[in-house]
Amino acid sequence: MEVHRQTCQLCGSHKMRNILARENGEPDKVFVQCADCHELVARYSLGRGGYFHAHKGFESYLRSMSRSGEMMSSKNIQADYQAIEEAARFRFKEIMRILAEENKED
User: Fold this and answer.
1) Which residue has the higher pLDDT, 24 or 70?
2) Is 54 found in the same domain as 41?
3) Which domain holds residue 20?
4) Distances (CA, A) of 85 to 1, 43, 74, 82
5) Are residues 38 and 56 in the same domain?
6) What is the pTM for the complete model shown?
7) Segment holding 16, helix H or strand E
8) How far apart, in Å, do the first and last CA atoms of the chain sit?
9) Both 24 and 63 in a single domain?
10) Looking at residue 56, what DSSP letter applies?
11) Which residue of 25, 28, 53, 91 has the fewest C-beta atoms within 10 A of its own C-beta?
C-alpha cells in the first residue's frame, strides 16, 4: 500500500481542513484547504455508497446513504455499516503505522 500525507504545494504545510460540499444530483465533494495559508490544496469526489464518519454512529451512515440515492435491503445495511466501521478502523491503524515507518508523521 502506498500512503501519502496531503501537502500544500504553496507553503509546504501538512495542516489541512476538509470541507464537505453537497449539491443535489451530484456526488459529495471534499475540498481540502491548507490550514496555514488558506489556499485550495485538492478536491475529491466521493463515490456512491455513503461514507463512514467515526464516532457519529449508524444514523449518520443511514443519512449519507439516503443522500447518495443508494438504498439497499434493510437486512444488509447494519451488517454493511459494521463491516465498513471495522475496515475503516483497521485500515486507519495500518496507515498510521506506515506513516510512522516512513517518518511522515508530524
Assistant:
1) 24
2) no
3) 1-46
4) 20, 24, 17, 5
5) no
6) 0.68
7) strand 16-21
8) 20
9) no
10) T
11) 25
> What's the CATH number where 38 sits?
2.20.25
The total number of structural domains in the chain stands at 2
Query: So what's the pLDDT on residue 70?
Result: 59
User: What are the cell numbers at 25?
Assistant: 444530483
35-86 pLDDT, tens per residue? Answer: 999 999 999 988 766 677 788 877 777 777 766 655 566 667 788 878 878 8
Query: Do 24 and 8 contact (CB within 8 A), yes or no?
Result: no
What does the alpha-carbon distance between residue 26 and residue 29 come to, in Å, rounded to a whole number?
9
Residues 71 and 92 grouped into a single domain:
yes
How far is residue 20 from each of residues 16, 23, 80, measured CA to CA in Å? Answer: 13, 10, 23
Residues 63 and 22 in one domain: no
Closest CA to 72 of 46, 47, 50: 50
**Cα 50 to Cα 8: distance, rounded to the nearest angstrom:** 27
Same-domain check for residues 10 and 25? yes
